[in-house]
Amino acid sequence: MLNSVFARLDMWQPAPGLGPVRCGALAVWLMFAFSMAAPAHAASWQEPPQESTAESGHEDTAAQEPGEEEHAEEAHGEEEHGEEAHGDGHADQSNMDYFLGRDHLINHNSDQYYFEFISFRFNAEDKAKKLYIPWISPWTEENPLMAQPEGEAGEFVGPITFQPSKFVVLQLVAAALLFGAFFWLGQRIQSGGPPRGRLWNLLEVMVVYVRDQMAKPAIGSHDYKYFLPLIWTTFFFILTLNLMGMIPMLGTPTSSISVTAAYALVVFAVVLFTGMKKLGIVGFWKAQAPHLDLNPLMKIPIVAGIWAIEVFGLFVKHMVLAVRLFANMFSGHMVLAVLVGFIGAAWGLAINWLVAPGAIGASVALSLLEILVAFIQAYVFAFLTALFIGAAIHPH
Amino acid sequence: MTTDNLFSLCLLLAEGEAASPLQVRIDTLIFSLLIFILLVLLLAKYAWRPIMDGLEKREQSIADDINNARTSSEKAEATLAQYEQKLQSAKDEASVLVAEARQDAARAREKLLAEANEEAQRQRARAQAEIVAARDQAARELAERSVDSAVSLAGSLVGKELSPSDHQRLIEQSLERFSNSG
User: Fold this and answer.
1) Tens of pLDDT, residues B164-175
2) Same domain, yes or no, for A76 and A175?
3) Helix residue ranges per DSSP H, chain B
4) Which of A113, A203, B23, B131 has fewest C-beta within 10 Å?
């Protein structure tokens, strides 16, 4: 009993060989230590005098707890205090307004021209470092190829610059990763022999699952082979993009409607094309309304109405395909951003002693949920793609 | 202020520099479209095709292996049954042979015994016959001799010669008496 307690205590010291468990424990401890260090060093730069006096008593107790890094951080805080006078927009905003503000949260979850890096020097001035993607486009935001429309329409259509953004770069990375992994898998499978090793088994289980549990039942065992490449790519690409959001400092390309709309457009095009190829252009559109045995007088308005609803539904369900994925990923990461934002919002306040551990615990729990959501949404998108294709080939 | 901010966040009503999350960037959309289509085509050619073929090949070979195993096990079972049958028939044959041999042996023994018995019987019979003959012979000789001597004695006493026919009759009478008594 005591031995196991000592073994656990021993784990907190960085040993020469750092295993994954020790690294994880170290990371959690560092996060905890930094969050604990917050009130002390935040007090050193916070401007309102009445707050700093209120915090001063607290500063001493906080200074004792987290240890040496905290002193170093405090020194940083002091330096920053000097720079702060030259800061730009946010000097008059409180932490709460900034970290839980709409702009910060939405910018954090949206597509940008830069990657955000964590800065432990938590304050509104310098809360993150930005690594800008080199500008390769001949057009800029100020001088775009096509300007953002004025007024309300501008909310929904952005300017066109053709500058690859963060999500474009991440998609390229994900595409390269996928291509490497599945090219390798293809070579292995084609060489014959039983699956060996974790990666091979892992990928093959998912590949076979998508084929046998999604594509085959939804499309039918005759035609599924033609659409399998699309379903496989859809599932694995969206899964990779969803999971990218779980890696700090990257982002979730699928939390942008522009990205998911592109995939939904491809699916829509495939559905229309295969449906018309199979049933003929007229046959496909005719098949949207079911055949009814009715009195002709009643039949015409009823069939026309059903046809209009079905065709409208055809468009809507592909639009919803894009919106569902985007909304799920965006909202999940928004919740995580709000949770972590609580730490920033409570920066320099005594309540952060409760807020920071709570927020970290909650964001760990929700991150686990987010991993589940990443898989579920990839599954849903790919399965619905298969279902729509199946419905287009075999109407009613 | 906080509730204001959260409220504005939820309803997306606040004025700010951040674009609406529902804003579509046409350029990002086109990039995504190109990346996705290219990825589908590249993967289809270099990854999905080999994976599909490889999986099918493997499934086919597994199905073939199972079929082969089934047929060869069936064949083995049939062969085993055949051999068992053969073995059984061999056993039956052997037991028949043994029984036959036993019967033959018994028969031979009986025959031998019977022959031996017969032989013994015969020999005994012959021996008895010989004995009887010898006795008869002896009796006859004795009778003849005694008759002869009696006759010669009587003749010498009476002085009368017996005719040869009387002589013979006397011998037979005495022989009869002898054999009746004997």
Assistant:
1) 788 788 778 877
2) no
3) 2-11, 26-43, 49-158, 164-181
4) B131
